[in-house]
Design goal:
With 515 residues, the protein is α+β, with helices and mostly antiparallel strands. Helix content is 30%, strand content 27%.
């Protein structure tokens, strides 16, 4: 067969050797950004290729399962004419953010020569040539191998895919521009998933979004008859597109947040912060729309949206999908709110306390579960009374544990009550040094107590034989906290626990002391 260059004799900047590629189900994939999902086949395409997304398409073979030969030619400029000697030729524009293109068998078959082929970075046009596409049931040993050749060159405009040479034996595929436009708009406004992903999230700056240093591009669409640009607002769920007329031929396209978002947690990030220009020009052969200054990674999606808007003005096929998603999200949000309220009630012994209490580290939740009203009363006290309550509770804890007369402990307690700083052993590293001294001091008594602990989901559990002095001492360490609210909560809770079976009596006394 003829392996000569294209009919316009455009020189190749690079050409791979013919390589054998394993294909399955009559398909292979061409990708310029691996790992990026697309809209799938059977939506837009012909007998040779189906458009799959901004960075991928599916090529169709004659053989169902087996080998074909393929190669890639990178051209220094656009191919002006179609090659001769091929059975089918089609072309499409791809977004090539990293300047690499790979041809891959549907089930993962690869060839080194067809993997990460260097192509222009940005938008590229890919023309696919195919010949001898025979199914294995009719292929004979005398038939030449099936061959596919890809010509690639850089472009600055996103043009529609097209059939250059139709296979006379090929089937006609139903085109679904509305479905394509729906996918395209949803791809521009993706919502974060509320479910944990099976696979790790793509890192920020993943190649398919890396457009650093690349110029913005244009989307070009042509129609033989007059077209109408839908000036006004295009609804897109939580967002909207504002198409505003500048003059007879020019409009501005800008993204904005919707006045009335439809999701319980609305999107706030715009696909593009910069307004872009839409120009509609008439000529002898019809009307041409140019959407200029768009991001390269958005060009494909915008082209599908325009293909639909120009032929079905006023129809927004993505709206029903977004409304359905919003309804589901609202139901899930309400379900989560109820579950969260139930969990909060269990954690806090009732309705949520103040934001300040919820933000504390320490024993706020624990105190709420044994006496929620007491927690609220402490929160409502002025700071001076909170500090007094903390000292009162710490003294009662030291007294019930027999620590009130231990010299260094009594001195620390007196210092706190006089609003003087506690020794460093109480203030550094959460009072570890002071606690270690407690455990090693021979003058410290050793008595045991039964602790009553309230745990969410478990209820009250008892711990018999706990060292009372160890349970009480955190009430004194709590006085080192500069926040009087945190100090009061921690001191009162630990003092209550240290009272063991007399916990409820201590809580009653605390209410009286706060009156």
């Amino acid at each position: 067969m003829n392996d000569a260059p294209s009919a316009d004799h455009r020189p190749s900047a690079f050409m791979t050797d013919w390589a054998r590629l394993s294909v399955s189900h009559c398909q292979y994939e061409v990708s310029t950004a691996p790992g990026v999902s697309g809209m799938g086949i059977y939506i837009l395409g012909d007998d040779l290729l189906h458009v799959g997304g901004p960075s991928q398409f599916t090529g169709f073979c004659g053989i169902h399962t087996g080998w074909i030969e393929a190669r890639v030619r990178v051209l220094s400029g656009p191919a002006a004419e179609a090659d001769v000697g091929w059975d089918a030729i089609s072309e499409v524009t791809l977004w090539s953010p990293s300047g690499r293109l790979s041809v891959i068998g549907l089930m993962g078959g690869t060839a080194d020569a067809l993997t990460d082929v260097a192509v222009p970075r940005g938008l590229v046009r890919v023309r696919v040539h195919a010949r001898d596409r025979l199914h294995e049931t009719v292929r004979t040993d005398g038939d030449p191998p099936e061959r596919h050749e890809l010509h690639v060159w850089g472009v600055s405009e996103e043009a529609p895919w097209r059939t250059v040479l139709a296979d006379p034996k090929g089937r006609g595929w139903e085109q679904k521009p509305a479905k394509a436009a729906e996918w395209a708009m949803l791809s521009l406004v993706p919502r974060p998933s509320a479910r944990p992903g099976i696979l790790p999230l793509l890192p920020a700056g993943y190649p398919h979004e890396d457009d650093a240093g690349l110029s913005r591009v244009a989307v070009v669409r042509h129609r033989p008859a007059p077209v109408e640009v839908p000036a006004g607002v295009l609804p897109v769920g939580d967002l909207e597109v504002r198409l505003e007329r500048v003059d007879d031929e020019t409009f501005t396209w800008s993204w904005a947040t919707a006045v009335e978002p439809i999701f319980p947690h609305p999107l706030a990030t715009l696909p593009d912060d910069e307004p872009t220009a839409v120009r509609v020009m008439s000529g002898s052969d019809g009307f041409t729309l140019r959407h200029e200054g768009v991001l390269g990674r958005h060009a494909f999606a915008l082209s599908l949206i325009w293909d639909h808007l120009l032929d079905a003005a006023g129809s927004y096929p993505w709206i029903q999908t977004l409304r359905g998603q919003a309804a589901e999200a609202t139901v899930l949000a309400e379900k989560y709110r109820r579950l969260q309220a139930e969990r909060d009630a269990e954690r806090w012994g009732g309705a949520l306390p103040s934001d300040r209490v919820r933000g504390l580290f320490g024993q706020a939740r624990s105190l709420a579960r044994i006496d929620r009203r007491l927690l609220d009363r402490i929160d409502a006290l002025p700071a001076t009374r909170q500090r007094e309550a903390a000292c009162w509770a710490a003294r009662h804890a030291m007294r019930v544990a027999g620590l009130e007369q231990i010299g260094w402990i009594a001195d620390a307690l007196v210092a706190a009550e006089a609003d003087r700083p506690l020794p460093r052993s109480f203030t550094e590293q959460s009072g570890n040094a002071a606690f270690n001294r407690l455990m090693s001091d021979p003058e410290v008594p050793h008595t045991t107590v039964t602790l009553r602990l309230d745990t969410p989901g478990i209820g009250t559990r008892t711990v018999a034989g706990a060292l009372q002095q160890a349970a009480a001492f955190p009430a004194l360490i709590a006085l080192a906290n500069d926040d009087p609210l945190a100090a009061a909560i921690n001191a009162i809770y630990n003092a209550a626990i240290a009272h063991g079976d007399d916990r409820d009596r201590f809580l009653t006394d605390t209410h009286a002391a706060l009156s």
